[in-house]
Structure formats: C-alpha cells, structure tokens
Amino acid sequence: MQLTRVDQQKQEAETEILRKIAYQVGVDAETVTAQQAYQGVAWTVRERLIDAFNKTQAYWREKDPKFIYYLSAEFLMGRTLTNAVNNLGLEGEFGEAIRKLGYSLEELQSQEQNASLGNGGLGRLAACFLDSIATLSLPGWGYGIRYRYGMFRQGLENGFQSESPDTWLTNGNPWEIPRRDLAYKIGFYGSVQDGKWQPAEQVYAVAYDNPIPGYGTKTVGNLRLFDCQPMSEFKLASFNEGKYSEATEDKRKAEDISAVLYPNDATEYGRELRLKQQIFFVSAAMQDTLARFKKTHKDMKELPSKACFQMNDTHPTIGVAELMRLLIDQEGLQWEAAWDITTKTLAFTNHTVMPEALEKWPVAVIGKLLPRHMEIIEKIDSIWIESLRKKVTAQVGSQSPKNALEKVAGAVKGALEEKTADPVEAALAKYSIITENPWEKGVKLVNMAFMATIGSKSTNGVAAIHSEIIKETIFKDFYELSPEKFQNKTNGVTPRRWLAYCNPGLSKLITETLGSNEWIAKTDQLAGLRKFSDDKAFQKKWRSIKLENKQRLADLIKSRVGISVPTNALYDVQIKRIHEYKRQHLNMFSVVNRYLNIKAASPEERKKMVPRVVVIGGKAASAYVMAKKMIKLVTAVGEVVNKDPDVGDLLKVVFLPDYNVSLAEVIVPGAEVSQHISTAGTEASGTSNMKFQMNGCLIIGTMDGANIEIAQESGKENMFVFGVDAKDIGRLREERKNFKVEDPRWNKIMQFLTSSTFEAGLFQDLVDNVNDMSKANDWFLLGNDFSDYLRAQDEIDALYKDQDAWTKRSILYTAGSGFFSSDRCIDQYAKEIWDVKPCEVPSS
Ligand code: 26Q
Questions:
Q1: In the chain, how many domains are there?
Q2: What CDD domains does the entry give (predicted)?
Q3: Ligand 1 pocket check: which of 125, 147, 152, 265 to mutate, most ligand atoms within 8 Å of Cβ?
C-alpha cells in the first residue's frame, strides 16, 4: 500500500527520533526514560530548526537587509520544545512518534530545564520580542550573555525564601549551537597611550547561537549569547612549579564573567563584575556586527542604513562609548563622523522611573576598568555641554538673558528661579552625563540613562503613562530640548506561548468560534469573540475550559506545596517579583481582612461567602530584606488560615515557590482574577497583566502602567479599578506623614499581624513601615489605597456570584487583548524606530 505524504513524514520523524535515542543518547528505545525520550525528541527537533535557520541566515546574507540587534543583559526564554514544535508546525509529525515512545509532548516538555536568563518583566519582554521579530520575518538577532547559572532557584525554609544555584545546563542544551571558532577579544583595565587603549587583561567572548523559530513563516531568527573564556586555558609553567590553582586562575576569573545572572532587578550598581558583564556582551555584539558589515561594505557611514541596536534599559548603554571607540580607534574615523553614525544607529528603551533602579556608575569604577571608554564619555559630555552653552549664548544675544534662557529649557527656568549665582552653568549642569553623587560629596557618577538618550536616535517608554512620566521627570530637560526623540511603545506579549500553547483548550474554542486559527498571528481578530460574550452556550464552554485549567493549577499546587484547594473557589493570583511597590503586602492585608470576616461570621453568613484561593508567587532579590519579609507574611498567614477549621474551604492561601516561566504557563490559564496593584506611577508597564487578559482572567488593578490601556481595550467598567491617581502621588506622599487611615479594618489587621498569633516582633517592621508615621512614611501609599482596594475586592465577590456576568467579562477581556500582542509592538518598533523591513525566505 502506498503511504500518504503525511504518513511518510510521521515515519521519518519516528526513525529520526529512534536514531537519536540510540546514538546520541545511547540507550535502548524499549527502556527509555522520560528524560532520555525528551533528549531524543529535542535533538531531532533541533535539526529541523537548524535547517530552517541556515536557510534564513543564508538568505539574509544574500539580500543584505537592514538588521535590528536587540541588546539585552536578560532573555527569559523558559522552555523551548513545545514552542519549537508548534512554531515549526511539527506537532502532527512528532505527536505520534512521541506517543509510541509512551509519552505525551507535555510530559517530555516537563523534562526540559527553564532557560531563566532574566529577572522578570524586562527579560521576558526580550524573549517575547524575539518571537515576534522572527514571526514578522524581520531581519534581527538578540545579543546577550550565556549565563552558566540563571535566576536562582527559590525554596522555602521555615516559610522564608531560600536560594540555590540554577544549574540549568547539567543535562546539556539541545537548543544552542556552540560557535567555538567565533570568539572576540574583550579588554579590561590598563591604560591609554597616544589615544590607544592597552588593556591589562583580555578574555574571549565565545558565541552560542540559539535559533528562534517564527510562527507561520519559514523565518528562523537568532539569539546569540556569549560565554566568557580565558585567552589561555592553562598555565603549564605554573603547574610544573606545583602552583596548581595558579595554573587555572585565568580560566576561573574569565568564567566568572558569564557565570551568573545578577538576581536583582533594581539596585546592584558600583559592582565591577556587573559592569564587566555589560561591556563583555555589548563589545562582543558590536564587534560581531561590524565584522559582518565589513564583509560587504567599505564605508562605515552606511552602518546606520544596515544596523540598529536597541538597548534594553541602561544595562547595554556602555555601548554608546564602545561603538565610538570601535569606530575611532579600530576603524580610524574622526570623532564627528563616529558620533554621527553612533547617534543614528543606537536606540534606547527605559523601563523604570524608580530612582534606585537608574544606573549610575562611579567615574572611578569605569575609569579603572575601561579607561578609554571613560575618556570618550568625558568628551561626549563636554562636547554636549559646550553645544548647549553655545545655544544658550546665541539665544541670549543682546536680549535680556532671562527671556532667552527660558527658550532653551525648563532647567534654565529652574535655575533662574532658584536664584543661582550663575543660572546658565547651573542649568547646564542638569544636562550633564557626569554628576556628583548627592549622598557622597566628591564622588562623581556617570548617569547611564542620560548618556543613552544623548547617544541615541530615540528614547522610548513601555506604556503610554510611563512614556509621559519620563518626559515630565527623569528626562524632562532632554525632552524639552529634543521632543522628537521621545516615543511610546506599549509592551506586548507573544500570543503563541501565552495563549495558543499554554491554553490549548481555550485556543481550540477560539479557533472553532472564529472559524480559523488566523488570530494566532493576527490578534485583532480576537475582537470577533465580542459578539459571543452574551451567548449562554458559548459561555458554558468557556467556563468548562476554565474549570479544566483550574484543575491543572490545583494539581500543581498539591504537588508543589501539598495544599488541597477546591476547584469551586475563585482563583485569585498575584505572580511577579516581590517588591514593596508591587504591594503584595496590600494583597495580604485584604486576605487577613477576609480571614477575620470569616472568623466573625455565623454559619449562615459563611454559607453565603464566595470561597477563594489566593495564590502568590515570585522571587525577592537576595539582599532585599523587606521583600523577603513579605514572602514570610504570605507563608505565615497561609499557615494560620489553611489549618483553621472555622475557615475550611472558604479561604486558602498559597505561596508557590520558584515561580518561573513554565509555572506561569500553568498559573495564567487557571486564574480567574489577577492582581496588578502597584502604587500608581511606579509600574512602568507590567506584562503579566496582558497575559492574564488574553486568557480571560479578570483584573483588579490601579490606574498604572499598561493597566490603563487594558482598561481602554476591554472596558474600564469590566476591570476592578481602585486607588489614587498617579498625578496625586507626589502630594499624597508629602501629606502621608499627617495622614491617618480611618478605616477600622486597617487597625484590626495591623493588630492581628503584631499579635501573638505570630512570633513576637516578626512583622513589626513591615507594619511600622506603613502604619507608624513617626518611623516611616508609607512610601507606597498602602494606607491611602486600602479602603478602596477592599471595596474593589467586595465587587469581585459580588460579581462571582453571577457566573454568567462573570463569564461575559472574561470573554470581553480576551476579545480586547489583541492590541497587547508583541507582534503589534514589534511592528511599531520596526516602523517608527528601527526602519527595518520584513525579509522572508521565499517558498521554494
Ligand atoms: C541593573 C544593574 C545591576 C543589577 C541589576 C540590574 C537590573 C536588572 C533587571 C535592573 C532592572 C532589571 C529589570 C527590570 C524590569 O524587569 N523592569 C520591568 O520591565 C517590564 C518590561 O518593560 C515592565 O513591564 C515592568 O513594569 C518593569 O518593572
């Protein structure tokens, strides 16, 4: 009998997998374990990936289009197998072969280690962007660091966070292609002689390529990560003298550079190793790009028409000085020409307005590690300030200095108002890249965000409100000088990983309802669900899928922390890094309030209450004491609540340890309400809010970050909005010292947390921070938002009692989520910043 083409493909896939299991893994197919089967399948999929990767890259070499290079210290990729199989359209071919081995794709996927090369939002954004860049067939690569240890693994010890190394490479990594022949020299320390840098130390940056399959296209992009290696492996002479550790010292020192991701998403400045990491990957990326560019182009002036570097926050911004150095010292360009190229090639994204998260490096640290770069930075700064001074002077002319100065920038106004002796100089100082540390007299700092803005063609924020705030605060003076440089690019998430693949049940229903699966690449089509939002039969199907996903989440909770949670309860989730500004403690205050209400209620009243499961997950930076206390708050309250027989199934409180991408892929589809409750004006965007919205999970949130735009798209009346307005924050912070929370529930909660229910003094500091205005000032305004938050919580309970109304809203969330696809976001970057156009391999 003749085999159909499909059958033939299935058979080929099976043969390939069996060969891999036999010869690569080296085991018998009969006795294969899940891990071995995973290895066999992954190494087979890898070959398909590499075939398409090679074709794409060859085509791009031939066509020579303009490229986008996404520079990021973090890429939070998660697992690859399911994404690769689905994006390559291999599920049909591979599914049966996997089943014959006795497994499902999901089981094999669970064998894969997460690539957790990022802290949180910023790193995951970079990963979503790579997916969209490939999906839109945009010529583009990511550049970063191949950390040997990613984000630490989080455990719980006595309810406190414990940390252990993330050994993600122990089983090998089928998804990378080592390029041991592709290594760039990176220098450190030394001195500058005759304008040329003589580094005292050098290491190699060795490339590893990670192919990135697009969806619905033949395009496979690339994430090139660098591993740090010594110039020489081993000092034989030292060894022969019996100095064994000296013999391997260089190797160890070099390997330290790419050893570990800094697990801090706000402060870690001044650490030399962190700066080493930054220059390490940025220099390697730029050398790599220039080397390719020079193969086909002679004139460096053409660089801006062939390459754009997008700098993901300040972490890669030493690149401004590095590109200048390469163009001047290596390529022999004059300063002006190099500056022109640099400022046309670089673009910068800001992700935060929190002062402690804006990188400022001591001049002394940069000067020692990168003396030539420091020279360049000083020259950039002095030319910049000089050009401003000229502008000011020209405008001053013969008129009164006051009027003329006002035209230049708001900063001058400020200086005039402050009656500074020399208003011009005082104003110019505000624009300077090099500033004095306000807390340490005489210590000079390099403001990396300023350098990035000056050295780039564009600066963008990551949500509408955030892009407005940066123009009014941190970049105010720069915005007034060059308003055209400032843009907004509201973040997005990939609908492949975050809906189509993590929620197959819902995905299938959407496809059936819309009549095709085109929505996976064109998420605007999700709006077509709106007209079904009132359809009872549709609502019923929608709900039954949610129930299955809740069951999956309940199973996960049971297996991870041993707590049984009922599936008829409302699943309420807050998953994100633990931070005071994200206010997980506000969430817990409401949990305590709920607990006290249950305790006070009669059996009759209890019957009317809506049961709730509260899930919190997230990691705290290792040195962030208050964030760690907030984790303990969750686990300690959980212990009290979960074992109280009065409470039963009415309330369960779960802290899910070791939150990561693959955990999110189970939690998001199972959640019914999710919390995005940062103090207004503090969360630049948020991206998990978008994932929940896509999966039809209702949102309780402040008018902050992208919540505002989500409310616009899915209806503000459908969101549980509470809290003060961002524009009032400054005033409220000043007034907070004299502000008293009048709500009696607040005091009861504070009393409960400092009562003998808990170890003496355990939560005193946490409570004092928000409640004792003689010691603190409740910087994140929990007191101000408390009552309104509880009101919003009550609304949630009330609506949940009307399941049809709840389901209708859920459908409207998904229907309104099309805008938040990273495809939309990347399309805007490509057109409005990068000027990069699609270039897809034609079907042969
Ligand atoms: C910097 C220097 C030294 C050590 C660590 C760091 C560091 C590392 C990570 C500083 C910041 C980060 C991460 C920041 C981050 O994730 N920001 C989030 O970015 C998201 C994507 O734009 C937004 O949605 C979030 O609102 C924002 O908090």
A1: 2
A2: GT35_Glycogen_Phosphorylase
A3: 265
Q: What angle is formed at CA 678 by the lines to CA 677 and CA 681, rounded to 5 degrees?
A: 135
User: How far, in Å, CA of 425 to CA of 415, rounded?
Assistant: 9
- What is the spatial distance between Cα 73 and Cα 282, in angstroms, rounded to a whole number? 9
Residues having CB within 6 Å of any atom of ligand 1: 119-122, 125, 262, 264-266, 268-269, 274, 315, 351-352, 357, 359, 462, 491, 683-687, 705
Strand 346-349 and strand 307-312: pairing? parallel
Tens-place pLDDT, residues 560-593: 999 999 999 999 999 999 999 999 999 999 999 9
* Cα angle 712-461-465, degrees, rounded to a multiple of 5: 35
What number does the ligand 1 atom closest to the CA of 264 have?
A: 5
Q: Could you tell me the distance, in angstroms and rounded to a whole number, from the CA of residue 115 to the centre of ligand 1?
A: 18
All residue ranges of the chain with pLDDT < 50 are 398
Residue 526 lies in a domain: yes
> Whose CA is closest to atom 7 on ligand 1?
265
Q: Please, where are the H alpha helices in 482-570? A: 495, 504-514, 536-561
Beta-sheet strand order (sheet of 140-145)? 177-188, 201-213, 220-230, 140-145, 67-71, 307-312, 346-349, 459-461, 486-488
Per-residue pLDDT reduced to its tens digit, 207-262: 999 999 999 999 999 999 999 999 988 888 888 898 888 888 889 999 999 999 99
| Contact by Cβ (8 Å): 151, 118 | yes
Distance CA 724, CA 260 (A): 39
pLDDT, tens digit (0-9, with 9 covering 90-100), for 425-455: 888 888 999 998 878 888 999 999 999 999 9
Nearest Cα to 590, choosing from 633, 620, 619, 629?
633
- Residues with Cβ within 8 Å of residue 554, at least 6 apart in sequence: 564, 565, 566, 567, 670
Cα separation, 275 vs 316, in Å, equals 9
265 C-alpha to ligand 1 centroid (Å): 5
Instruction: Report which of 358, 355, 376 is spatially closest to residue 367, judged by C-alpha positions.
Output: 376
Q: Residue type at 612?
A: R
Question: Distance, CA 709 to ligand 1 centroid (Å)?
Answer: 20
**Strand, coil or helix: 763:** coil
Task: Let me know if residue 706 belongs to a domain.
Answer: yes
In the reported structure, the alpha carbon of residue 485 is separated from the centroid of ligand 1 by a whole-number distance in angstroms of 22
- For the CA of 274, the closest atom of ligand 1 is 3
Tokens of 241: 């003298």
Atom of ligand 1 at shortest distance to CA of 466? 26
Q: Which of 313, 448, 494, 689 to mutate to test the pocket of ligand 1 (most atoms within 8 A of CB)?
A: 313
User: Does residue 551 contact residue 567 with C-beta atoms inside 8 Å?
Assistant: yes
Q: In this structure, what DSSP letter does residue 821 have?
A: B
Q: Residue 677: which CATH number?
A: 3.40.50.2000
Helix, strand, coil % in the chain, rounded to nearest 5: 55, 15, 30
Q: Residue 398 has what pLDDT?
A: 46
In a domain, residue 58? The reply is yes
Instruction: Evaluate whether residue 208 is within a structural domain.
Output: no
Taking the centre of ligand 1 as the mean of its atom positions, its distance from the CA of residue 351, in whole angstroms, is 6
Nearest atom in ligand 1 to the alpha carbon of residue 123 is: 16
**Residue-number span of the structural domain to which 739 is assigned:** 495-820
What is the C-alpha separation between 213 and 51, in angstroms, rounded?
11
- What is the whole-number distance in angstroms between the Cα of residue 314 and the centre of ligand 1? 10
Quickly list DSSP for 241-269: TT-HHHHTHHHHHHHHHTTB----SS--T
Ligand 1: which residue has its CA nearest to atom 3?
268
How far is the first Cα of the chain from the last one, in angstroms, to the nearest whole number? 29
Catalytic residues: 351, 576-577, 582, 687, 691
Please report, as a single letter, which amino acid is at residue 55: K
Compute CA 761 distance to the chain's CA centroid, rounded to the nearest angstrom: 35
- Best CA proximity match to 432, nearest among 419, 447, 412, 417: 447
Partners of residue 149 on adjacent β-strands = 260
